[in-house]
Amino acid sequence: MSVQQLKRVFLEDILPTWSKSGFDETCGQFVEYLELDGAPQEAGEVRTRTVARQIYVHAHASHLGLAPSASLAMAERAFANLHRVAWVRGKRGGYTRSFNRHTELVTDPVRDLYDNACVLLALSWLLTATGKDVYRHQIEQTILAVDRTLTDPFGGWAEDSNGTLPRRQNPHMHYLEATLALCENNRTPKHMRSEGKAFALLRSHFLVAPNGPLHEFFGPKWELAERYGSDRLEPGHMCEWVWLATRHDSLARSDNTKICLDLFSTALAVGRTPGSLFLVDTVSVGKPISPSRRLWPQVEMLKAFMALHERLGFPGYRTEADDVAAAILAAYMTGVPRGCWHDCLDLNEVPTARTIPASSLYHLWTAVADPVASGVGHLCG
User: Does the first or last residue of the chain, that is N or C, have fewer Cβ atoms within 10 Å of its Cβ?
Assistant: First the structure.
């Protein structure tokens, strides 16, 4: 029952810790990271995607009745701050990439697909948790801004308002995640079209062959080339797509089981080194090219095991999920301040991270909250 144990650690230790240390009351905004001793970040620089994901976590957890009592008000206050500081109006609108929470000055004015996808996810759950029309309105404005500012003639959306290369699958994956949340909670025909458009990119561009692998980096016309880093693969993202594809199938009444199995088998084959349950961050032609294992790919692998267990009923997947959860607890959540974690290990499982990034809070929460994981309900009591 290690999956359930991981959930308890999150709900009893991690979420309360980040509700306190992860929020700057003076600024009314979330922090980018905690120090290794659990102290809040003192510097003011924060990324839009990081604060948006924390808004999402607290809004979703509040909706499920799992969050500390002040979480929803905190999420709303943080979004009001984010919107006031980072939202750009007009024909080239959208949310900027980063700002200083102390000075409320934008530090990177680029409108990025990744950041706007994360804001859209946060808005979806703010609307679901509160029912307030202000969030419904901003959802529509954000979708409109993405379509106007980041339109691309070769399909999908541009990387950012500067047209930066290489193009990446990852921001598109998170845009799919946001539109999935919209469809699952507040479905409209427009949201369904956006979700379908985002999911279609998996077959049309990201899976170059029917059975993969999932490619990450592309040229302007989705071409693969060494100069764009197209040989680099990320096993964690393959796992993440398994989780998202199962949700898409539930929504669209489709069946992408074969794609999920191919993606997952590839992720495990290229991402695990002998003697370890954990995935490396990045590989090239099946060989690790980064001697590191961040926490988030392990959580995405856990979610993929649980999603496939729900889809296929094979008990081995649940056993594997429990094994991965136990390994995460032992390697990443031992010898750290309460409610914290080692964010990165080397190939010998020695911690190497210099901070505790808030970005991993989101990955952990999605494993706790995912309905296919089951068991969240009885943890409420």
Answer: C
CB 233 within 8 A of CB 216: yes
Tell me, yes or no, if the pTM score tops 0.85. yes
Taking only the tens place, the pLDDT of each residue in 270-316 is 999 889 999 999 999 757 778 899 999 999 999 999 999 999 999 99
Residue-level pLDDT at 131: 98
CA dist 198 and 150 (Å) reads: 14
128: left (phi over 0), alpha (psi -120 to 50) or beta: alpha
Structure-token pair, residue 349 = 């499982």
Residues 186, 128 contacting (CB under 8 angstroms): yes
CA 326 to chain centre: 22
3-state helix/strand/coil string of 274-329 = CCCCCECCCEECCEECCCEEEHHHHHHHHHHHHHHHHHHCCHHHHHHHHHHHHHHH
What is the amino acid identity at position 245?
A
Q: Which residues of 198-219 are buried (b: 16+ CB within 10 A; e: fewer)?
A: bbebbeebbbeeeebbbbbbbe
- In this predicted structure, the answer to whether residue 378 has a pLDDT above a threshold of 80 is no
Own/partner long-range contacts of 331-336 (Cβ < 8 Å, ≥24 apart): 331/278, 332/295, 332/298, 333/9
- The pLDDT of residue 286 is 58
Q: For domain 2-370, which CATH number applies: 1.50.10.10, 3.30.420.40, 3.20.20.70, 1.10.3380.30?
A: 1.50.10.10
354: number of Cβ within 10 Å: 11
- Structure letter (DSSP) for residue 87: E
Residue closest to 71 by CA, chosen among 80, 63, 79, 62: 62
Max Cα-Cα span within the chain = 54
Tokens encoding 167 = 């193009």
d(CA 71, CA 60): 10
DSSP letter string, 181-250: HHHHHH--HHHHHHHHHHHHHIIIIIBSSTT--B--EE-TTS---GGGTTTEE-HHHHHHHHHHHHHHHH
